[in-house]
Amino acid sequence: MAEKTSRYPKSVETRSRLREATEACLFELGYVGTSTVEVCQRAGLSRGALLHHYPTRHELIVDTARHFWARAETSMDDLAEALGGGRLDVRGFVEGVFQQVFGPRRIAITLELIVATRSDETLRAAIAGIFSRLIESYQESAARALLRSGLSQAQIGLVVSLVASTLRGLWVQQMLMPDEAMKAATIDSLIYAVERILASGPERFREAVSTDARRAS
User: Fold this and answer.
1) Residue ranges of the domains in the chain?
2) Which of 16, 101, 123, 129 is at a distance of 20 to 30 A from 190, taking alpha carbons?
3) CATH of domain 1-55
4) How deeply is 212 buried, as exposed, middle or buried, from its count of CB atoms within 10 A (0-12, 13-18, 19+)?
């Protein structure tokens, strides 16, 4: 029993090194270039060590994605807790999400994983499940943070979608066409929109996004 316990930390460290190397490959070489040979070289481990923990490349990629997005989940949860506790205002929250939850490395790896699922149904099913859980986590974190706002769960979901979709798309745009002025203006506009939503209350928000209201305008 003692022998098994003593090996456990080493096993955890080995898996962590393999995931870190896989992330680096995905970021620098893309999904196609992320071979098990390259991962082993970067991790400084033998192929036997990799196969012991991850018998297939699929399992390595999926476990890497799971831990990769778990860090985003933790970052969002911490920011939402700070917002709900009054330690962050809306600006601090939005800017924190932009820098900590997303960022160029996270966006690049996310895009690689998503594009890879187009031609791999097994990978698509696994990645979709992990990503779905990530979005649910964002919703749960925001619901706790905005508990006092009076917004419904559905309305909070819209706010989360607005923030996440805008900031995720902004990073993609910045990676292709860097423009600091546009980035700052977009973030300021998003902050303004979220502040207005929270200040208007659930009824006004419901009216603003209702189908009938849009048609009438």
Assistant:
1) 1-55, 69-216
2) 129
3) 1.10.10.60
4) exposed
Say how many C-beta atoms besides its own lie within 10 A of residue 107's C-beta. Answer: 18
Give the DSSP H/E element, type plus range, for residue 217.
none
Could you read off the pLDDT of 59-107 as tens digits, one per residue?
999 999 999 999 999 999 999 999 999 999 999 999 999 999 999 999 9
Residue by residue, DSSP assigns 36-66 as HHHHHHHHT--HHHHHHH-SSHHHHHHHHHH
DSSP codes joined into one string, 96-137: HIIIIIS-HHHHHHHHHHHHHGGG-HHHHHHHHHHHHHHHHH
The C-alpha atoms of residue 200 and residue 203 are separated, in whole angstroms, by 8
What is the distance between the alpha carbons of residues 179 and 103, in angstroms, rounded to a whole number?
15
